[in-house]
Request: fold
Amino acid sequence: METLVEENARLRREVAELKSANERLERRVQELEHRVEELLRALEEAQRAGKRQAAPFSRHKLKANPAKPGRKAGAKYGRHSRRPIPTTIEQTLDAELPGCCPQCGGELEETKIDKQYQTEIPQPQVERIEFRIHVGRCKRCGKRVQGRHPRQTSDAVGSAASQLGARAVALATEMNKGLGLSHGKTAAVLEKAFGLQISRGGLAQAFERAAMKAEPTYEKMVQQIRGSPSVTPDETGWKVSGRLWWMWAFSSDQLTVYSIQPGRGFEQASAILGTDFDGFLVRDGWAVYRCFTQAVHQTCLAHLLRRCREMMEVARPGAAELPRTVKEILQDSLQLRDRRDRNQIGEQELAIACDQLEARLDRTLNRNYRSPANRRFANHLRRERDAMFPFLYCPGLDATNYRAEQAIRPMVVTRKVWGGNRTEQGAHTQSVLVSILQTCRQQLRPATAFLEQLLHLSKPQALELIPPTTR
Reply:
């Protein structure tokens, strides 16, 4: 009897233990199911971001009580402003009183004259020019010689005698290469706005001739970017004849050089920068950039911070320690830079703070991590270790590759509109012309005027795009 009682008690304890274990497993299953749902949502968002179109998908839920659009009343209105009155008036028009009151028909008496100003586009008109080219022959050598007017863009006669003017080509270049309009839409704007009819093929040929005139200037820009003290490179995919090529961008504070090439390796990068570039290279974590062994490297902290945030969103609580710690170190380094730039910290205090940051990072990287994602991230940081904090020791050096990101952005918009180039020659034309347009934008100078100057040259020659005083 006692044996049965003991056996029954033992079985009851085992049942209680199994129930407790079952409850723990059920809670664990619920936690894992919730975690799987979070990871699936993160994966879906990542997949959607990779295929995001020109009109982006909604990323978050709509606000329950969104703020009313437009200006706010009272003190929250903001700075008051209005369109300035034109300094030059080309035409004055009178708005006369009507013959009688429009309400009752009574006689009107003029009391004052108010003024209104309007800035209008003049009526577009195509200017058709005939150049009477005087042709002669040298009496000594017999060589044919012809005159050239400063407004001519070419010496061609015969079947190629009818051409677009420099202003028209410059405007079309700005629309197609600078604003991203397709060849068809560029032709449509020229026809609707100015009555200028031209085919898409004619535009392509005009752009190629403009690039030929700009080739020496482009080559000079390549030499200038190689001699720049700091360069920020980046690259993005680009299609040429339906094949994947790469649009490279190399930016400094004064100019930007683009180059569409069939690869994404050191050979293509060094074709612009040269193999012996020894300035500051502010770049992302792409391994090719580390091949510039003579350069002083600064890795982009924005990319590292973004990677930390992405890892923290999907990592388990224990595995989130590495990205959280790295994020804090990077943010502290940026705050330290801001204090230095505002002269809020002395040189000795700055040196001590930099040493402390370096020590914190080294302690973090000297640890071993079990998570595969953390191991990959730690290995990447070890490779980038020497390139993480040069901006703290070199005032004026950028901590991110924002210059190249901004240079790449309009090219991404263009890629969404009309994809790429059909030929290698078209890709080179694209590289030359957008380099000039972007550099003019950086210099705050009108690109169309510079292109007109290039097109009026009798033969291709390098023009000074960067004033000597700004170097």
User: Anything to note?
Assistant: The beta strands are 135-137, 144-146, 230-240, 243-251, 256-261, 280-283, 296-299, 420-421.
